Write the structure tokens for this entry.
Amino acid sequence: MRVGVIGAHASRGWARAVHLPALLSLPDYEITAVAGTSRESARQAADVWGAKHAFADPQELISHPDVDLVTISVQLPRRDGLVEAAISAGKHVYSEWPLARSAEAAERLHALAEQAGYGMPSGCRAGTTRRSGTCATWWPTARSAR
């Protein structure tokens, strides 16, 4: 599966510490695109993580044909609209938690993903429950994303 990572950075951040190394260790996943806060930071991240494409605009990553799965690893409120845009673009989505600003918004995003037939897991840190406020994880759809 070809993965685009929004929030990728060459030397700092949660994506650098966790998501990108994990993706590199999975043989069925390939990091094809990254998006950062600037074209320069995205290019540096692409060089470090082996991505072919680097974007300063996350919407460009979302719409790129070489991306099947969008990993969204930026903090709220920068995450607002990105999950919905990825679902609308026909992409699988993995989002950091909280998925949305409210449980209602998270449920709406989950419903959109289910209607589209795409997996959309949301990451929860150790010590949280499967349903803790806006941290909701949908493992059945996560399995279908593989």
